[in-house]
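As a warm-up, study this chain.
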Amino acid sequence: MLNWLVEIRGKRSQYEVAKEIGIAQSTYASIEVGSRNPSVQMAKRIATELGFEWTRFFEENSESA
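Now compare it with the structure written out below.
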């Protein structure tokens, strides 16, 4: 589970964020729970929408960062 991503998303729903970046809510949910890794392009879109550095997805130990 990417707790840091859930915290950054805050009160916005997964559906809201997914809609804004143009992916299915189920795809976004899979990324949050850690069962799917985003592509670089998708990581950049999520990071831009939520306001963090996209490379965070690919940092070692990012699930606890």
